[in-house]
Amino acid sequence: MRRQRSVDVLVVGGGPAGLAAAARLAASGAGTVEVLEREARAGGVPHHCHHGGFGRWGVTGPQYAERLVEDALGAGAAVRTGVSATGWAGPLSLDTTGPHGLERITARALILATGARERPRTARLVPGSRPAGVFTTGELQQAVNIYRQEIGTRAVVVGAEPVSYAALSALRRAGVEVAALVTEEKRPQVGRCRAAAARLGVPSVPLVTGAVVAELMGRGRLSGVRLRRGDGRDGRECVLACDTVVFTGDFVPDHELARRGGVLLDAGTRGPAVDGSFRTASPGVFAVGSGVHAVVPARVAAGEGVRVARAVRGHLEGVGWPCGAVPVVVGAPLRWVAPNLLSPGAPGSRFVLRTAKALVCPVLVVSQDGRCLYRQRVLGKVLPNRGLYFSGSWVGKVDAGGGPVRVALG
Ligand SMILES: Cc1cc2nc3c(=O)[nH]c(=O)nc-3n(C[C@H](O)[C@H](O)[C@H](O)COP(=O)(O)OP(=O)(O)OC[C@H]3O[C@@H](n4cnc5c(N)ncnc54)[C@H](O)[C@@H]3O)c2cc1C
Prior knowledge:
- It contains seven helices and 27 strands.
- By secondary structure, it is α/β, with parallel strands linked by helices.
- Helix 1 runs parallel beside helix 2, helix 1 packs parallel to helix 7 and helix 3 packs parallel to helix 4.
- The longest helix is centred in the C-terminal third of the chain and has 19 residues.
- The chain is globular.
- It binds flavin-adenine dinucleotide.
- The site of flavin-adenine dinucleotide has 40 residues, from helix 1, strand 2, strand 4, helix 3 and helix 4.
């Protein structure tokens, strides 16, 4: 039997985005604000990232997470841990399960802040058997920092973006030798200093570029990875002996709950499509943070939580839900853009996009039905897995009755 109750605002996900939204809403008198977090502790990803670099002051992940939890509780929000939202019972009603049993919670506004997950080995279609010793960064960090498990002796890290270097430091902390960082890109997607520090550090870590993992080897326990250089046509392959491999980055928004609720998803981000006020296409449902576009620095996710609070207040006070939003779409080599809906009256927010291919000083063009709305030469390099932010100053020129707005980079 489900216990039924109501709140004003229900936030699913107790990471930086959800906690910041809850703190701001509770502090501004939005009524009963409740956060559901399925983990035993709230804080989201920072909770298990023991390295520094979080927030404006670069504190460690757990310190940052603790501060967010304190802010939310201090403002009067309820933060309930060990509670998962498992499905929908209505447009603004969620079924949950937790230590106190099954519940059905109905809200006046729902914020989805469910974060992102790294694509595991299976989703990357890496051939081979299913040996032990295969991790994503999140799994590795939980094993090292929270459960203090034995990891292995020699590892290969797949990826060379910021999160890959976080995996590298977790492996070092666990006393695991790192055989190499392997990326299919031509260069790492981090600043030169960070890449050099790994390459030249003690012990140094070789960086293998332009290579993919073609096979996981070993039965029972991983014994090595077969790497294929280039596009594979020249047949250059080699085997790196290792008992551990960490697949890093390649994040996908955790969109299962949104999908089950029929919330419109964006084809590029694969998270809920949102406008500049983080409103989805489902009235009363908002979405923020890495669950919308994976993956952003924690302070950006928390900033979105702060910004969504204003729109949620407006909704609670009776501001109508927009209908007839214009979609914003991208073409290759771009992967996605966010926000990806333009609603009449929504603020002209900043946009962020991701490319699949490195480009040097490209030109960014925003157009609608062949009409140029905005053009900008981007100075410097645009790299895969790094966000490129650009102004929304052109939003006022969009024809609300026109076709999709297209963003191109070339
Ligand atoms: C390995 C790694 C290292 C990073 N290092 C840095 C760094 O140094 N500096 C930095 O600024 N950023 C860093 N980031 C990025 C930063 O952690 C994220 O941007 C930030 O955590 C996103 O916040 P979020 O609230 O959107 O999502 P998350 O932090 O992922 O939180 C989402 C929460 O929702 C919960 N949840 C999901 N579904 C449900 C459900 N159905 N019911 C209940 N709860 C649910 C999850 O358990 C999770 O706790 C790192 C990310 C990773 C993965």
